[in-house]
Amino acid sequence: MINEYPSALLEKAVTEFSHLPGIGRKTALRLVLYMLRQDTEAIDQFANAITTLCHEVKHCHRCHNISDSDLCPICGNPRRDQKTICVVENIQDVMAIEHTQQYQGLYHVLGGVISPMDGVGPADLEIDSLVERVKEDGISEVILALSPTMEGDTTNFYIFRKLSAYPDVTISVIARGIAVGDELEYADEVTLGRSILNRTLFEGK
Amino acid sequence: MINEYPSALLEKAVTEFSHLPGIGRKTALRLVLYMLRQDTEAIDQFANAITTLCHEVKHCHRCHNISDSDLCPICGNPRRDQKTICVVENIQDVMAIEHTQQYQGLYHVLGGVISPMDGVGPADLEIDSLVERVKEDGISEVILALSPTMEGDTTNFYIFRKLSAYPDVTISVIARGIAVGDELEYADEVTLGRSILNRTLFEGK
């Protein structure tokens, strides 16, 4: 078998790129050859942005969101509701909820959901630190905003049980229902059923 | 508008990744967050592989293929047929042909095809250096292996005219026809027409 790559350096770069999720060796080669056509300054900037991020990034010691400092901009913002915590799976979920501009409370990033199949148990997640925050910070409401999967529901239930020791704290779950813009007839039965059970008052103005 | 990213370092890395072809901001974020979960050693290795490649890679001064030295392993291999040149558009094409293990000659990487729409003229490609090689190195055959597009055909024709000054050199084009494994009825007319015109003797053994 002849060596596929004309250059060992090229092969190494392709191998590194192909370790990324969803990127095979063909795509990796395409990306690397694209980078080769850029000037070296742009490449140094690219490499630098990634190494700097990985060496210097911190996690907020309160909500475990990614942050440039020990306290993230959300936790550090005094105008946000300090009594409400929204529990999410990961950083992308924080960004998605922030993007709606409908939430003014704080977050708590679990870092995953309980999934015995993937070997993820409660101890691997930031659940104890959530309970600690509820206990220490006088939280009045915990909103569970995990994905409506079996793992998400399991995690919801686990957190619900852990927090039942604090009866003053309201525990809510984000609404399940027909997505805005969706056709009713194509919605699955469970979602449609829940959307009827959890109907809200019509605000006709 | 609230800042979308919880960390400026994260945003910078995402921006850098999203400059790559076919990678949008969502994919870029996914890739960067994946990298964040790796240990810093792996990240340094990744960044290092790319910067080393871009700073140290060379192009073979004969065929313009990527190489670790001034002469690529193919041009430098004395067992390869030094009298035949296969003209290809880019480095991937060299790798594809090498992969077939059916070709023992040398290559010439043009670096593109003539495309007035994209502002690529003959002077932007390694055509003059090809003519130089044909003149100097006593080449007996030039195989044109460009894509069967309008741009590829234009480039073929341009090279053919340039090389007509050397009547001793055979100029051939890779065969167009029905791909192995393809259904005849789904082949386009032009391809099927050419495959009939350019039929070869049946080697029934």
Tag the structure with descriptive keywords.
205 residues; alpha/beta; Helicase, Ruva Protein, domain 3; Dna Topoisomerase Vi A Subunit, Chain: A, domain 2; 2 domains; 6 strands
Write the element-wise H/E pattern of chain A from the N-terminal end onward: HHHEEEHEHEHEH
Main β sheet profile of chain A: 4 strands, parallel
Query: Most extensive interface, residues per chain?
Result: A-B, 61 and 62 residues
Number of strands of chain A: 6
Biggest β-sheet: strands ordered side by side in the sheet of chain A: 4-3-5-6
Mean pLDDT score of chain A = 89
What oligomeric state do these chains adopt?
A: homodimer
